[in-house]
Every structure is written in C-alpha cells, then in structure tokens.
Design brief:
Blueprint (H helix, E strand, L loop, with lengths): L2 E2 H11 L12 E4 L5 E2 L1 E5 L4 H9 L4 E4 L16 H11 L3 E4 L2 H5 L4 H8 L3 E5 L12 E9 L1 H12 L5 E3 L5 E10 L4 H6 L4 E5 L3 H9 L3 E4 L2 H5 L1 H16 L5 E4 L10
Parallel strand pairs: 4-5, 4-13, 5-6, 10-11, 11-12
Antiparallel strand pairs: 1-3, 2-6, 7-8, 8-10, 9-12
C-alpha cells in the first residue's frame, strides 16, 4: 500500500512541526500535487542538481530536504536562475519537494538532537527554547567527563567525517558543550549564558571568532553542511519505520551529497 503526498506531508510535519519554524522561514510542501501517490521518497540536505539527478534516476516522487528550495519570493520562473531551473525540471518530472528547515532545527529528534547524540552529550537541554521544553534552536549538554580541547576537536572531526575544522581554543577543558547545526553564531551569547565552555556551529566569521575568544568560550566551526547532514539519515530512518509500521510499501532513500566546502 502506497501513500498520498498529503498523508506523507502530515507525517513529516509530526516529526518537525511547521509551527516551530521561524517567522522568516519557508517550510512545508513547496512543490507538488497533494493527491499524488508516493512510492519512492528521497531525503537530502539540499535540493541541488546532484540530488535532482538521483531523484530522477530512482524515480522518486518527492524529495524531502532541510534547506528550502524556495526561500524568497519568485518574481519570474525561467531557466535563467539555476534554482528556478531545478524547480522547472522537478515539475516537468512530477517530483514534489518538501522542506523542513528551522522547524527541524528546533524539533525534538531534529538537527541539534542528532548532533548532540553524535557527540554523546548527556542531560541535553534546549539552548534557545522555553525553560520547560527542549524545543528551540540549539542544544546544550555534558560530556561524561572533561577532556582536553584538542582531544574533543579530534572527536568532532571523526563524528562529522571531516578532515579539518576551524577551532578557536579559549584555554578551557571541554565538559559542557553547546551545539547549533548550520549557521548558529547568533546564539553565541545563549551558549555563554548557559555556562558552556565549548560551542559547535558553522559559518563562523573572523570577528565572531574574536568575540568567542573574548567571552572565554572554545569555538569549533564544523561547517554548515557537515553539522546538518547527520539529520538526513535520522529522518529517513524514522520515516521508513513509520511507513512500514503503517503498512505502506513506500521506499525511503537517502541522497549522496558531496561536501561543498573542501580543504585542498
């Protein structure tokens, strides 16, 4: 038994409720016909040319992404813009696109819970949510025991499958760690106020690194992409299990995505 696109979107919304998205965000079903039958789902971080080719090759009916393929308003739909060209190609091939962005950052079991789990943090709490809920962008938790910053950096590279990271040592051992997958330097002060000795995020700029050092907190830039990629497998696994339990024959696949920023 397959499932309709509308039913599938409802399930994904349960995993990452759209009401958790930031006001400026654009989430949910962005491309597609709600009554379309879904036999194959492809999960990815981004809706890129690389991912679209895999969707076509695997006859995917929908691509579920973290980053929205439509973010700002579209004023014209032509192949003069690479994003619009991808959208036109998706429509031509009857491939729907659903995006869960900041709602997946905030949701329980989302981007930041997966990142905290990979780092084996315990007593995990929300970094930027309400006091009575773990929901909210970012997480903070404890290592079982303190480790040297250099040792912790090696572990970060291992779990994120990176050869290099940018690190700003503040001269403190690592025990209380805050994480925010993607671009999270806006929450540096939240990490400091929560008592973190180390903060992991992506897209760190030079003067932001200076700010972290001045506030005596270790900082690791695990890159935007690498800190978010782990959630793709998690969502695919959870979705596949849910569909199987409900008797649906729909296949759930994970796209292979090349690391965009590479040290050469």
């Amino acid at each position: 038994m397959s499932i309709s696109l509308k039913q599938l979107c409802n399930i994904v919304n349960e995993m990452a409720p759209c009401h958790l998205a930031e006001e400026w965000d654009n989430v949910g079903l962005l491309v597609g016909r709600t009554e379309k039958e879904v036999k194959v789902v492809l999960c990815a971080l981004d809706f890129s040319a690389e991912v679209l080719e895999q969707a076509k090759k695997n006859h995917a009916d929908i691509v579920i992404t973290h980053h929205p393929v439509i973010f700002r308003g579209i004023r014209r739909l032509t192949d003069g813009d690479w994003r619009n060209a991808l959208l036109m190609d998706a429509v031509r091939n009857d491939i729907a696109v659903y995006s869960a962005h900041t709602n997946l950052d905030s949701a329980v079991g989302g981007v930041n819970d997966v990142l905290a789990g990979l780092l084996e943090l315990e007593n995990v709490e929300g970094l930027n949510g309400s006091e009575d809920s773990v929901e909210g962008i970012g997480r903070i938790g404890l290592l079982k025991e303190p480790v040297a910053f250099e040792t912790f950096v090696k572990n970060v590279k291992r779990v994120l499958k990176l050869e290099h990271v940018t690190a700003v040592p503040a001269g403190r051992p690592v025990r209380k760690v805050a994480v925010c997958g993607g671009s999270g330097m806006d929450f540096l002060d939240n990490a400091v106020q929560a008592g973190a000795d180390t903060y992991i995020t992506g897209d760190v700029k030079y003067h932001e690194a200076q700010e972290a050092l001045g506030k005596n907190i270790n900082l690791i830039d695990g890159t935007h992409q690498a800190t978010e990629l782990p959630v793709v497998n998690e969502i695919a696994d959870r979705l596949a299990l849910r569909l199987s339990r409900e008797g649906h024959s729909t296949k759930v696949l994970v796209a292979k995505e090349t690391l965009l920023l590479q040290t050469v």
